[in-house]
Amino acid sequence: MRIGILGCGRLGGTLGTAWSAMGHEIVYGARDPRDPRLDTLRVDTPYARTATLQDAKDAAEVVVIAVPGAVADEVVAEVGPWDGKILLDASNDTRPDGTSVAEALQRAARGARVVKAFNVVGVEALRRAAAGEATGTMPIAGNEDDAVAVASRLAADLGLTPLHVGGLAMAASLERLAGVWTTWSRTLGRHFLWDVVT
Questions:
Q1: How far is CA 138 from CA 28, 40, 174, in A?
Q2: Which domain CATH number covers 95?
Q3: For residues 82 and 59, what is the distance between their CA atoms, to the nearest angstrom?
Q4: How far is residue 159 from each of residues 90, 123, 146, 189, measured CA to CA in Å?
Q5: pTM of the predicted model over 0.90
Q6: N or C end of the chain, less CB within 10 A?
Q7: Buried b (16+ CB within 10 A) or exposed e, 35-72
Q8: Which domain holds residue 123?
Q9: pLDDT tens digit sequence for 129-153
Q10: Above 90 in pLDDT, residue 96?
Q11: Number of structural domains, the chain?
Q12: What's the CA gap between 23 and 1, in Å, rounded?
């Protein structure tokens, strides 16, 4: 699968490196393709390409937004239109009106099929799962079954058990869960994963 990752920070790099190792084609997108952070990603993900945000989106079958949640809707609006493309929202933010980043993205990224995923634990925990050192549950929220299925496959590729918790309206609860993870990580360390038994 061709995966575009918008954002060149630790989260995007962790996801891209792990998925590349599973045989996926990764295209990292940045506003400035000369951003020095991309040099690190090229080393860690040797078969990945780097591009502008727009080119990374256009080249991909599925796109992950891995930028700070406060600017995520601005970024996806900048690179539209989306024309039915799957957009996986891995960001977090606290919004005054109580809505989630994912719901804001659904409004800003016209035509995108937005799914909330990969936001409820930090990069250390994601790396641990991808390395096969631990297992855990990855909650996923989305309205469309085929888009949720893609997110679920990518979660499984990271060594995680996908759990569809409902439609995009559930995304705000996943962002709150990420806040709990961050708080607990101060005591438990940044390597723990959620394990939901149903």
A1: 23, 27, 10
A2: 3.40.50.720
A3: 12
A4: 17, 14, 20, 20
A5: yes
A6: C
A7: eebbeebeeebeebbbbebebbbebbebbbbbbebeeb
A8: 2-188
A9: 999 999 999 999 999 999 999 999 9
A10: no
A11: 1
A12: 8
